[in-house]
Every structure is written in C-alpha cells, then in structure tokens.
C-alpha cells in the first residue's frame, strides 16, 4: 500500500464558512444527531417493545438497534460517490425526507419483523446523512483544523445521547412506545427546513468527477491503497464495536445487573456527558499536541481502564460504585479517539472526500456492528463478559494502529510534533 498522501486541495483553514461558526457546528452536529436520536431515543422503550411483540429471547430486543445500524453501514459506499458527483445538498435533503417517512412508518409496524425491516431502511437513509455531514466539513477544511471542528461538532452532538433517553422516557409518560419513533419523524422535518434555508452547496461543480462505475472504482481503490486512510478506518471499526455494544446492552446492564431501571436515563446521561467533555477537551488540545499523540495515548488508556474495571468487578463483585466511574472514564476515551482517527483517515483524500467519508462510515458501522453484536450478545446477567470484550477490541485496535504506523506510536512525519 502507498504511504504517500494524496494532494490536499482544500485549505487547512477555510477562508470563510457559509454561516457563523456556531451555526455551522450546530448544523453538522444536528445532522449527525439524527443518527443518535434513532439509536438512543427508544432505549427506555426496548423492554416495552419486547413485551409488545412477545419476544421469547430477552437479548432479541437489541435487534431494534442492530437492524438500524446494519442498514446504516454499506449504503454509505453508494452515497459517497454520488455526493462527489452530484453535490451534497440534494442528496442530504432526499435522505432526510426518507428518514422522516421511516420514522413515522415504525409507529405502524404490526410485527417485530416489520419493525426491524423499517429500521433497516431508516438506517439506509441515515447513512446518506452521515456521509454528507462529514463531507461538508472536509469540503471546507482539513488536517488538525478539521479534527478541532469535528471535536466541537461531537461536543454539541453528544448532548443528544445525554437527552435522547430522557426524551424517550418522557414521551412514554404521555404516549405509547410507538411515539419514540414518531419523534424521529418530527426531528427530520425540522432538519429539512433548516438545511433548505441555510446550507448552500459546498462542493463546486468544477470539482465533481463524473458518476460512473470506473470512476467510483478508482476512487475507492485510492482510498483502500492509502495506508493511513485504510489503517485508521479499520482501527475505528474495531474500537467503535465497544461503543455499539454498550448502547445495545446498556438498558439491560442497568436494569438487570445494577437494578437501576427507574433511573437508567440519568446513569446513561452521565456516561454520555463524560464523552462530551472528552470531545470538548480534544477540541482544545489537538491542534497543539497532534492527532496521533492524543489518540494513541488515550487508546492505551482505554485498554488499561477496561482491564482494571474487569479485574475489580471479578475481585469485589459487580458493584455500581466500582463499575460506573471506571466505565465513564473508559467511555470518555472515545471522545479523544474518534474525531482524531476520523481526521487522520480523511486527511489524504482531497477531492474524493465523499468517497472517503463513505468508506470510513462503512467501516466504522458495519465492522463495528459485527463486533458490537459479538460483545453485547455475550451478556448473561453479568457485565464482566462485556468488559472482557472491551479489552479484546482495544488490543485489536492497537495492533492495527501499530501496523498502520509501522510500529511507531505518538507521531510521524505526517503529523509533526
């Protein structure tokens, strides 16, 4: 594989954003938040959904999450080249419209199989939204500036996982669980109005390659033969499996292990809050310290914290006072890994940002979905198997990073220290 970076055609610091910085950060965060809403809003409803459809296997309720994430993965490979050729705005508006329709359609599902099928389709719609969100940022900036802005985006974005379960639980106080999906349709409608009025096209027509199979093949070949891009895509796919496994099993963990069903949304919000703080911290330090130094150091911390938590629970029993602070710190590591891995993967790609964003999104969802399901499906009334999975995923991610960086951590010629 080639290690040389492709010529970057977008300046690291853009001359001007199409709107005030606070609004741009908020808009990109809101686009990405549609994905988080589709995952987190119905977490408090999973038990009721299982009862409503008379599911015989308790872990089957996790499929409401995984069906969506499975649909979210592969279609990004299609949306990337299309957005590079057609432009960003038309594609994102079409995807949000479909997301809105499927949100309301989930309310009418008459069987669990139908609900999963609609969730799969909703994931497809959300995949296009995610590709465009990252591509718009890459259209306007690159390098550490992109990493800093994406950290700001993630800081705002993480408000949604903090509030979404509470929103879902609040909805269920006044309406049946079906309306936790109706909320998604309403959010989609609001997002369509905002983008229509305020977001211009960010990819100039002269920078759009023609849409054809040969061109798409060459673009993906370029992505897959760029060593840094491929390496950090694979590393992200593995480590984000830990995040997906937690989201899918969190309601069961706090209900069955720690007997905190009534206050689940508060405990979940605390974990998401730790992640949000870490994202903000990354936005403050990454341009000064560097993407590699930050992400590599924190990846090692993730592994150590997961090991300590596992051993502590085995030694002292599954006590919330031990598990929760250690797990919050472990989960916060994603805030110092995710944005930096994404920026490292996207930095060499220049004009094919849409294709790169699609490939990265595919890897961090499809691969992460598999590993997330593999870990969360081991839940047996104990949180220890999940933490053991975290250790394994962390070590796997570290191995990929070492291969990508040819055995050197914390910095290279591409990220000067």
UniProtKB/TrEMBL annotation:
Pfam families per record: MFS_1
GO BP annotations of the record are:
xenobiotic detoxification by transmembrane export across the plasma membrane
> Does Transmembrane count among this protein's keywords?
yes
Q: List GO molecular-function terms, semicolon-separated.
A: transmembrane transporter activity
Keywords from the named record: Membrane, Transmembrane, Transmembrane helix, Transport
Which InterPro entries does the UniProt entry name for this protein?
A: MFS, MFS_dom, MFS_trans_sf
Q: Where is the Major facilitator superfamily (MFS) profile domain?
A: 24-408
GO CC, alphabetical: plasma membrane
Q: Which PROSITE patterns match?
A: MFS
Q: Tell me where in or outside the cell this protein is found.
A: Membrane
List the transmembrane segments.
21-43, 63-79, 91-110, 116-137, 149-167, 179-197, 228-248, 264-282, 294-316, 322-346, 358-376, 382-403
The UniProt entry, under CDD domains, shows: MFS_MdfA_MDR_like
Its membrane topology is listed as: Multi-pass membrane protein
Quick one: where is this thing mainly located?
membrane
Protein's name according to its UniProt entry: MFS transporter
Top-level taxonomy? Bacteria, Pseudomonadati, Pseudomonadota, Alphaproteobacteria, Hyphomonadales
């Amino acid at each position: 594989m080639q290690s040389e970076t492709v010529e970057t055609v977008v300046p690291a610091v853009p001359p001007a954003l199409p709107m005030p910085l606070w609004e741009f950060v908020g808009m990109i965060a809101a686009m990405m938040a549609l994905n988080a809403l589709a995952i987190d809003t119905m977490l408090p409803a999973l038990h009721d959904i299982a009862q409503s459809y008379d599911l015989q296997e308790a872990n089957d309720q996790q499929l409401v999450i995984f069906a969506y994430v499975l649909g979210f993965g592969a279609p990004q490979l299609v949306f990337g080249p299309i957005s590079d050729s057609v432009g960003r705005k038309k594609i994102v508006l079409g995807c949000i419209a479909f997301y809105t329709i499927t949100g309301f359609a989930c309310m009418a599902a008459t069987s669990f199989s139908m609900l999963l099928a609609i969730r799969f389709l909703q994931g497809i719609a959300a995949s296009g939204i995610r590709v465009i969100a990252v591509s718009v940022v890459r259209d306007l900036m690159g390098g550490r500036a992109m990493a800093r802005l994406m950290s700001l985006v993630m800081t705002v974005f993480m408000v949604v996982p903090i509030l979404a379960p509470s929103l879902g639980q609040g909805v269920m106080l006044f309406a049946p669980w079906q309306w936790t999906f109706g909320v998604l349709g309403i959010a989609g409608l609001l997002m369509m109005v905002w983008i229509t009025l305020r977001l211009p096209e960010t990819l100039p027509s002269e920078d759009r390659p023609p849409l054809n199979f040969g061109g798409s093949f060459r673009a993906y070949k370029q992505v897959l033969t760029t060593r840094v891009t491929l390496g950090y895509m694979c590393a992200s796919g593995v480590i984000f499996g830990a995040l997906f496994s937690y989201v899918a099993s969190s309601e069961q963990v706090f209900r069955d292990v720690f007997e905190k069903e009534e206050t689940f949304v508060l405990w979940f919000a605390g974990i998401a809050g730790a992640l949000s703080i870490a994202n903000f911290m990354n936005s403050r330090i990454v341009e000064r310290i560097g993407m590699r130094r930050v992400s590599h150091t924190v990846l090692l911390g993730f592994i150590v914290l997961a090991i300590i938590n596992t051993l502590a629970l085995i030694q002292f029993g599954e006590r919330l006072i031990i598990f929760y602070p250690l797990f919050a710190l472990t989960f916060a590591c994603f805030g110092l890994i995710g944005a930096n891995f994404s920026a490292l993967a996207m930095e060499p790609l220049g004009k094919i940002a849409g294709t790169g964003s699609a490939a990265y999104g595919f890897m961090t969802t499809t691969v992460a979905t598999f590993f997330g399901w593999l870990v969360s499906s081991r839940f047996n009334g104990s949180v220890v198997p999940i933490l053991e999975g975290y250790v394994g995923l962390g070590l796997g991610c570290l191995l990929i990073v070492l291969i990508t960086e040819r055995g050197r951590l914390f910095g290279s010629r591409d990220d000067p220290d």
